[in-house]
Design a protein that fits this description.
With 540 residues, the chain is mostly helical. The protein is built from 25 helices and no strands. It has one domain (2-533): Sodium/glucose cotransporter. It starts with a helix and ends in an 8-residue tail after the last helix.
C-alpha cells in the first residue's frame, strides 16, 4: 500500500507542478504549441534532452545489455557526448539560423519540397512503427518488475483468457499511453519540457539511489565492499572494449555506433526539437553541452545496475530486459519503490510525449500545411496535429505488447533505428557541407538508403552477408556509399546556383563564447573515461 501511495503522490505532484508552471502558455498557435514560443533556456533544454533520452528503452534496455555484455555497452553513453559537442558547434547554428521547427523543413530550404515530404514520411513511419511502441513496451516491462503488477492481478478468475503477465503488459501500455497523449496533445512542447525537467530531478535521484543501494546490498552494507565484490566477480566484464562476442565489438564504434549517435543527437526530430525552441543560439549551445556533461555520468545508472543484476541473478532464468526491474524491486524499500515507479512513469511519458509531439509537428507542418491544406489557420494547424496524435497513439498502444517476442529490446531498437537514421543523416550532412548538391541527389539518398538497409536486414542472402560483417559495419558502409552517390549526382546534375543560407532572424545567433573550450574538455573526458577501462587483449 505504501508503494502505491508514494507512486500516486509523486505522479500527481509532477502533473500539478507542470500545470501550474505552464497554465498561461500559448497553446493555440503553431509557434507556441510546437516550439514553446522559442522561450526555452538552457536548464529546460538540458533537462528535456536528458529525460527524453533517458526513457525506459535506455534504463531497461541498456542495463539489460550490460547484464549480457558487461561494461562495454557504456559506449552508447560515452560516445554520444562527442555527438552532442558536434551538435553545439556545427548543426545547431545552422538549424536555428533557418528558424525551422523540423528537420524536414530545413531539408526543404536546402533542397526542395519533395525532399521534405519524403523525410516526413520516413520519420513518421519510424516513430509510429518503431519508437513509440518500444517506449511503451519497455516502460510496461520495467513497471511490471518494480510494482510486481502480475502478482496484483494474480487473483483474477482463472477463466480470464490472458495470464497475469500478459494482462499487466496490455494494461500498463494503455494507461501510460493515454496519460502521455494527454500531456503531449493538450500541452505542447513547453509542457513536455517542464514535466521532463521535474521528472529529470527525480530520475537522477532514483537512478543513483538504485546503484548505491544495490552496491551496498551486494557488499553487505558497505558500498566500497560492494564495488570490490562486483569488480572481482566480473573482472573480465569490466572492460570498455567490446569483443567480437558482444553486441558492440570495438571496431563498430568507428562505423555504425558513431553514426547512430551522430544522427540521434544532431538530426533526430524527437530529440532536437526542444533545441529548436531555444531563446537564442547561446542558450541552445549551453543546454546541449550541459546535456553532454551529464551524459558522462550515465554509465553509473544505465550500465552498472545491469552488471550488479548479473551478479545477483545470473543463476536465475530471466530475460536481460527483466533484470533492471527485478533489481529495483530487490533493493528499494516500499516507499522509495513507489517514488521510483513514479519517476519511471515520468521517464516513459517524457520519451513518449516527445516522440508524439514530434510526430504531430511533422504531420501538421510537413503535411497538413502545404499538402493537405494550402492556407490553413493557426488553429487548424494545431488541431490537425492533435487529431493525428491520437491516431498515432492508439496504433502505438496496439503494437507495443506484440514486442514481447523480441530478445534484447535495446539491440532491436538500434538495429531498426539504422534504417532511417543513416539515410536522413547522410542527406542532412551533405546538405550542410556542400552548396551545389541537388534535390535529385537528396531524394536518391533517402530512398536508396532506406531500401538498401531494409534489404540488408530482411532479404536473403543479403542478410546473411550483413550478419557476417556485423550490422553496425554494414550501416557505416551504406552511409559511405550514400555520401559518395550524392556527391557524384551533385557533380553530374548540380544545382543551377550555389545554396546560400539566409538568417531568418528567429533568434539571436550570437554563439556562447565558451562553447569551443567546453566542448574540447568534454571530448577529452570521453577519451579519458574510455581509456581508463580499456583492455585490448580481448581483440587478439
Amino acid at each position: 500500500m505504501l508503494t502505491i501511495l508514494s507512486f500516486l503522490f509523486f505522479t500527481g505532484l509532477v502533473a500539478i507542478l507542470t500545470w501550474w508552471l505552464t497554465r498561461g502558455d500559448d497553446h493555440e498557435t503553431s509557434g507556441g504549441y510546437f516550439l514553446a514560443g522559442r522561450t526555452l533556456t538552457f536548464p529546460l533544454i538540458a533537462g528535456s534532452l536528458l529525460l527524453t533520452n533517458l526513457s525506459t528503452e535506455q534504463m531497461v534496455g541498456l542495463n539489460g545489455a550490460a547484464f549480457t555484455d558487461g561494461l562495454c555497452v557504456m559506449v552508447w553513453e560515452v560516445v554520444c557526448v562527442v555527438a552532442l559537442v558536434f551538435m553545439a558547434w556545427f548543426f545547431l547554428p545552422r538549424f536555428l539560423k533557418s528558424g525551422v521547427a523540423t528537420v524536414p523543413q530545413y531539408l526543404e530550404i536546402r533542397f526542395d519540397h519533395q525532399t521534405q515530404v519524403i523525410t516526413n514520411v520516413i520519420f513518421l513511419f519510424a516513430y509510429v512503427g518503431i519508437l513509440l511502441p518500444i517506449i511503451l513496451y519497455t516502460g510496461a516491462t520495467c513497471l511490471m518488475g518494480i510494482l510486481d503488477v502480475p502478482s496484483m492481478l494474480g487473483s483474477l478468475p482463472e477463466t480470464m483468457e490472458m495470464d497475469p503477465k500478459t494482462l499487466s503488459l496490455w494494461l500498463i501500455v494503455w494507461v501510460v499511453g493515454i496519460i502521455g497523449s494527454i500531456y503531449a496533445l493538450f500541452g505542447g512542447l513547453r509542457t513536455v519540457a517542464v514535466s521532463d525537467t521535474i521528472n529529470g530531478i527525480g530520475l537522477f535521484v532514483g537512478g543513483f539511489s538504485i546503484a548505491y543501494l544495490a552496491l551496498s546490498q551486494l557488499g553487505g552494507g558497505g558500498v566500497a565492499e560492494g564495488v570490490s565484490i562486483l569488480m572481482e566477480d566480473q573482472k573480465e566484464r569490466f572492460n570498455s572494449v567490446g569483443s567480437e562476442d558482444t553486441s558492440v565489438p570495438f571496431g563498430t564504434i568507428f562505423s555504425g555506433i558513431f553514426l547512430l549517435n551522430l544522427f540521434y543527437w544532431t538530426t533526430n526530430q524527437q530529440i532536437i526539437q526542444r533545441t529548436f525552441g531555444a531563446s537564442s543560439l547561446a542558450e541552445g549551445q549551453k543546454g546541449v553541452l550541459l546535456t553532454g556533461a551529464l551524459k558522462l555520468l550515465g554509465p553509473i545508472y544505465l550500465v552498472v545496475p545491469g552488471m550488479i543484476a548479473y551478479t545477483m541473478f545470473q543463476d536465475q532464468e530471466i530475460k536481460p530486459d527483466e533484470a533492471y526491474g527485478l533489481l529495483v524491486n530487490e533493493v528499494l524499500p516500499p516507499a522509495m519503490t513507489g517514488f521510483f515507479a513514479a519517476v519511471m512513469i515520468g521517464a516513459i511519458l517524457s520519451s513518449f510525449n516527445s516522440a508524439l509531439n514530434s510526430s504531430c509537428t511533422l504531420f501538421s507542418l510537413g503535411f497538413y500545411r502545404g499538402v493537405l491544406s494550402k492556407d490553413p489557420s493557426e488553429e487548424q494547424v494545431v488541431r490537425s496535429g492533435k487529431m493525428f496524435g491520437w491516431v498515432v497513439a492508439v496504433i502505438a498502444m496496439v503494437i507495443a505488447p506484440l514486442l514481447a517476442t523480441q530478445g534484447n529490446i535495446f539491440g532491436y531498437l538500434q538495429k531498426m533505428n539504422g534504417m532511417y537514421f543513416i539515410p536522413i543523416f547522410a542527406v542532412v550532412l551533405v546538405g550542410m557541407l556542400t552548396k551545389r548538391v541537388s534535390p535529385l541527389a537528396a531524394k536518391a539518398g533517402l530512398l536508396v538508403g532506406v531500401f538498401a538497409i531494409a534489404i540488408g536486414y530482411f532479404v536473403e542472402p543479403f542478410s546473411t552477408v550483413v550478419d557476417s560483417i556485423h550490422e553496425f559495419h554494414f550501416l557505416g558502409l551504406v552511409f559511405s556509399w550514400l555520401v559518395v552517390m550524392m556527391l557524384v549526382i551533385g557533380e553530374l546534375r548540380p544545382r543551377d546556383t550555389e545554396f546560400e543560407q539566409e538568417d531568418s532572424g528567429a533568434v539571436d545567433m550570437t554563439p556562447w563564447r565558451f562553447a569551443m573550450p567546453v566542448g574540447l574538455v568534454l571530448i577529452a573526458m570521453v577519451f579519458t573515461i574510455y581509456a581508463s577501462f580499456a583492455d585490448f587483449s580481448v581483440l587478439r
